[in-house]
Amino acid sequence: MSAEPHDNADSDGEDADGFAAKLTVGSGNIFRYAVSHNNIDDGWDLYTKTDTGPIGVVTIEDSLAYNNGTLSNGGQAGNGDRNGYKLGGEDIPVNHVVRRSIAYRNGKHGFTYNSNPGTMTVSNNVSIDNAERNFNFDGGSSVFRNNISCRSGSSTNDRIIGDADSSNQFWSGSNGSRCSSYTGALGWSFALRRPPRRDLRRQSGNAVTDPAARASPLAGTFPTWRTDSAGAAASMPSPPSGCGAWSSSASTATGTAPWHCARSCSRRTGLTWTGTRRR
Ligand SMILES: [Ca+2]
Ligand SMILES: [Ca+2]
Question: Residue 4 CB: number of other CB atoms within 10 A?
Fold first, then answer.
């Protein structure tokens, strides 16, 4: 949760991923509010191999993968796979879940099934300007809902095999209407979230200073390249679960669109709580 692996590299540029929940990893792994960038191989790698069979189902949500395949200093390796989210290997089906996540300018595919023929849940993701395909699913029966794929120029069309309906806007030569929501340079930060009230209740009845504001959902600005001269309203993706709404929606498609989502509590007053009671 809220982890940021970046600039991982190895001698041959082949295996240094940001997150590698692969090969023999067990069940129950969840990545949330994680940002993987500028790693020499993949952002996420869920590779499976015939020798050892399926891995546990992995859930990735509210996360971001960008610039994988290129280190922050510009270094690249010929062997790097360079995907944002690499979701399989060797024709072994595993029904991973990838939702509300972003792939941006990775060196190959944004999201790729990588020969995972399973039924993955792929929903509410945004994929932008990845070098090859934003979404690459050449087989399987994955279910696609509300995904958005955008480009600032021409590139390879998305490849989608599975259950995809009209809620998606995949890229096949032009941007869909929702691409106008994104403008400017990519920016992000971890928003601060206060501990839930029930945690504080376990402490004394006196005013309690927030002991550890926790890093939590992503916040930042998001890129667009389609300027809507009319400033027409543009819709943002659905906010992550637990968030009531984006604190600032992209009401126009010009300039950068600040977006921010943090769980909030109406009873919170800054960093200091007052009037807490024992239960
Ligand atoms: Ca590799
Ligand atoms: Ca890899």
Answer: 14
> Can you spell out the DSSP letters for 67-116?
STTS-TTS---TT----SEE---TT-----EEES-EEES-SS-SEE-TT-
Contact 151, 178 (CB under 8 A): no
Q: Residue 211's pLDDT is what?
A: 40
**What does the pLDDT average to over 166-195?**
84
d(CA 161, ligand 1 centre) in Å: 24
In this structure, the number of other CB atoms found within 10 A of the CB of residue 158 comes to 24
pLDDT score at 275: 31
Ligand nearest to the CA of 17: 2
Distance 147 CA to ligand 2 centre (A): 24
| Residues forming a β-bridge with 218 | 190
Residue recorded with tokens 């995949």: 170
Known catalytic residues are 86
Residues 45 and 171 in one domain: yes
Do 276 and 201 lie in one domain? The reply is yes
What are 8-66's pLDDT values in tens digits?
Answer: 999 888 999 999 999 999 999 999 999 999 999 999 999 999 999 999 999 999 999 99
How many domains, in total, are found in the chain? Answer: 2
